[in-house]
Structures are given as structure tokens and as C-alpha cells.
Amino acid sequence: MSGRFVIVGGGQGASSAAAKLRELNGDIEIEVICDEPVLPYQRPPLSKKFLSGEMPLERLILRPQSWFDEQNVKIRCNTRVRAIDRRAKTLRLSDESSTNYDRLLLATGSTPRSLPSSVGGDLKGVHKLRSTMDADAIRPALNSGNRMVVVGGGYIGLEVAAVASQLGLNVTIIEVADRILQRVAAPETSSFYRDLHQSYGVEIIEGVGLTRLAEKDGRVTSAELSDGRIIDADLVLVGIGVMPNIELAEGCGLTVENGISVDANCRTSDPHIFAVGDCASFPHKGNRIRLESVPHAIHHAEVAAANMLGDDQAYVATPWFWSDQYDVKLQIAGLNIGYDQTIVRPGKRDGAQSVWYYHGDTLLAVDAMNDAPSFMMARRIIEVGKTIPSEIAADPETNLKDWA
Ligand SMILES: Cc1cc2nc3c(=O)[nH]c(=O)nc-3n(C[C@H](O)[C@H](O)[C@H](O)COP(=O)(O)OP(=O)(O)OC[C@H]3O[C@@H](n4cnc5c(N)ncnc54)[C@H](O)[C@@H]3O)c2cc1C
């Protein structure tokens, strides 16, 4: 196959797709177009070691410029794709030029939800976290003694809280749901992380909403809560989820359904256009889902690349995810959607444990806290479509290897 393959986006999905396309075909023309000023980079350290200052920008970059040169992959940074003309197979770019494609991949990622300006979302000192620029804007305020309010007790909020409290800030997490991590994890995992954060002095307020952020001279000074409490704040991190970047797809009439809708082959409603990663929703066990994780973005992109070149591979999600907070590494295997039972398995290390999610007799997912062996065995069991009875998984004497 020959032709011009264009990738919109400069994140994990775009980078992996470019590499896979080149690995599979040495002749096609490949161009990556990204609106960020830097080469594609990994985002997970933004809320971990990059934010704390332990990891420099160079170590975030997924592939250096020399890789693009050697592989003959053109990359345009600082350039936003504004519109797609599907009939002419052209893209209109932010520098007013246009470019054509034979096959197009949308890997446009997602955007953090923000607080409306009516509650103070646009005040100075109120931050989101998606890019290196966002992390660079937060870091100067991470001074010992400063007071940080984190709005939203999801993984990104909790990770930022962990970094900030270890740097000596006084941190308060506000979660409107009954418990932190409610959307993504079982009560046992929420309890584990509530205890962990509280042991580092982080205050966690659950079941209470934010009413508004107060200000002085345009800068945030406190958070007013729905129960009347006022929490002083020098800075606020808003971590209330993301929205898929669908504007380009919507603008050219592609089907959008909780993200850019793709089939099992990663193909959109236009056979010449594919979509992967955070921005795309795909069929999974009778549902249409969207995943926000690095392993998914990589695997999805690699399957899409093969199919853009004429293959017919079906993407089967075998999700896994991780989160680092303090000295605890969380590794998640599988998807817990639809679980009706959980068990807790104590790990070998002090304080280590895993939470196993079941639907009936079927193992769906496992959250493993400092328990890599349980994570690896559970992942293997789930990936091959097997299960392990819950009472046997709960028994710390069970040798999981026998089941994996
Ligand atoms: C702070 C943070 C911590 C995270 N931690 C973890 C973790 O621990 N583990 C994990 O598995 N996942 C983690 N994630 C999620 C993971 O980083 C994402 O799921 C992954 O980056 C998705 O890759 P992607 O290529 O789909 O999108 P992205 O990496 O978001 O890349 C999309 C790119 O497209 C660009 N773009 C968008 N629209 C246009 C346009 N019109 N023209 C040109 N360019 C455009 C964007 O600017 C961006 O550069 C984290 C994310 C964040 C923000």
C-alpha cells in the first residue's frame, strides 16, 4: 500500500500509531500534526515525578526528533487541525494552510472538565492538569506551608494531593460523591486510599460539593462548600474528569457517541478515517466504552495502524492501568463494570492487598496495591477469559500461579 497517512494529535496514541505504521510499511508518507509545542510525551508523570520536579521534560518525550528523522516521519508541532473536508480529503490547519490525506487517524485525546467561571473556575491559582504547561504552572506554588484544595477525588486529584502533601503543603480533597474513587473503584479501594492520604495529613471531605471559590484581586483565596464550610486555599487543582476531543469529528459529520464512534477495527463512520485512545468510543462486550489509559492508547493505535494499511484486526481491550501515590503502586487489571461482589486478598508485603471484582462467578478486575504478583496473575487469568472462585482468591495461601 502507498499513500499519505496523516495523524492528528501528539500524544501516546499518535506516537504509537506512527511507529507501528512505519514498522509495517517503509514506503508510505507519514505526517503527525499536533497543537502542542513539544514532541509527543507521556502524561502519567505529569501528576507524579514531573510535577514534583524529580523528572525533567526530556524524560517525558516518547521519541526524540532523531527518531522522526531516521524513520522519515514528518512531525508538525504547534499546529492545530481546525477542520476536515472529507470529500476533498483535506485538513485545514491553524496556520491557514491545508494538507491532504489518503488515510487519517484522529488521536486527539481529551480535555479536563473545568469549573464554570460563575463559581470561580477562571480565577488565578485555579489549575487543571493535562499538559506539561499545566504542570509548569502548578509547580511554583508547591511550596511548603501553602494550602491546596483539590476538587475531585479521582486518580489525578489523589496523585496531585500525594505530591503536594509530600512537599509540605496542607492539602484538602473535596469529593461530592459519598467516597473518593466512587466512579472507578469499590469501597475497599476507596478506604485504602482514604486511610493512606489521612496518614500523610491530607484532609478528605466526602459527600460535600463546592459552592464557589472566593477571591481577592482575581486570585483564589478559599473554597466555600455546600455544608457551609470554608477552606482557605492558595491554589486549587480541579480534577473532575475529562471530555473526549470530538470537535473535529463532529465538524465533519462523523458519528459521535461518548467519543468518536469507531468499530472493532478502529474505523469511524468514514472508512478512510480511524480514531484511537481517549477520544474514541469502541464496542466492548456488548457495550460502547471509552478508556483513558496509556496501555489502551498504545494497543488501540497499533491495531488501527495495521487496519489503516488494509489489515482486518479486531481490537480486544485487555485493560490495565496504574497509579502511584506515596510509596504505594496501584495496578489495575481488567474492567470492573457491572461487578456485584468484591473480595479482599491480603498481599505478601506489609500493608499490601488486592481487591477482586466479580460478576457472579466471573472475575472482572483486580485492584492490586503494592501487590504486583496478584496483579500479574489476575491479569493473566482475565486475559485468557478464565476465572478463579472468589473464596479461593481470598485465601492468601492460594498459589495464584496454579490458576494463571
Ligand atoms: C496527569 C495525568 C496522569 C495520568 N496518569 C495515568 C496513569 O498513571 N496511567 C495511565 O494508564 N494513564 C494515565 N493518564 C491517562 C493517559 O495519559 C491518557 O489516557 C493517554 O495520554 C491518552 O493518549 P491519547 O493519545 O489518546 O491522547 P493524548 O495523550 O491526550 O494526546 C492527544 C494530543 O492531541 C492533541 N490535539 C487535540 N486536538 C488536536 C487538533 N485539532 N489538532 C492537533 N492536535 C490536537 C492534544 O493537544 C494532545 O497533544 C494520565 C493522564 C493525565 C493527564
Structure description:
The chain has 404 residues and is an alpha/beta fold. It has three domains: 4-111 and 242-308, FAD/NAD(P)-binding domain (3-Layer(bba) Sandwich), CATH 3.50.50; 114-238, FAD/NAD(P)-binding domain (3-Layer(bba) Sandwich), CATH 3.50.50.60; 327-403, FAD/NAD-linked reductase, C-terminal dimerisation domain (Enolase-like, domain 1), CATH 3.30.390.30. 23% of the residues lie in helices and 30% in strands. It has ten helices and 26 strands. Strands 3-2-1-7-19 form a five-stranded parallel β-sheet. Strands 9-16-10-11-12 form a five-stranded parallel β-sheet, with helices on one face. It has a five-stranded antiparallel β-sheet with strand order 22-23-26-25-24. β2 (29-33), α2 (65-70) and β3 (73-76) form a beta-alpha-beta unit. The longest helix is centred in the last third of the chain and has 15 residues, at 294-308. The structure holds flavin-adenine dinucleotide. Flavin-adenine dinucleotide is lined by residues 8-14, 33-36, 43-44, 46-47, 80-81, 107-110, 129-130, 156, 245, 248, 277-279, 292-295, 297, 321-323. Flavin-adenine dinucleotide (FAD) binds at residues 8-14, 33-36, 43-44, 46-47, 80-81, 107-110, 129-130, 156, 245, 248, 277-279, 292-295, 297, 321-323.
Write the layout of secondary structure elements.
Layout: E1 4-8, H1 12-24, E2 29-33, H2 65-70, E3 73-76, E4 81-85, E5 90-93, E6 98-100, E7 103-106, E8 110-112, E9 126-127, H3 132-138, E10 147-151, H4 155-166, E11 170-175, H5 187-199, E12 203-206, E13 210-216, E14 219-225, E15 230-232, E16 235-238, E17 242-244, H6 247-251, E18 260-261, E19 273-275, E20 280-284, E21 287-289, H7 294-308, E22 320-325, E23 328-334, E24 341-346, E25 353-359, E26 362-369, H8 372-383, H9 390-394, H10 400-403
Parallel strand pairs: 1-2, 1-7, 2-3, 7-19, 9-16, 10-11, 10-16, 11-12, 18-20
Antiparallel strand pairs: 4-5, 5-6, 8-17, 13-14, 14-15, 20-21, 22-23, 23-26, 24-25, 25-26
Flavin-adenine dinucleotide is lined by residues 8-14, 33-36, 43-44, 46-47, 80-81, 107-110, 129-130, 156, 245, 248, 277-279, 292-295, 297, 321-323.
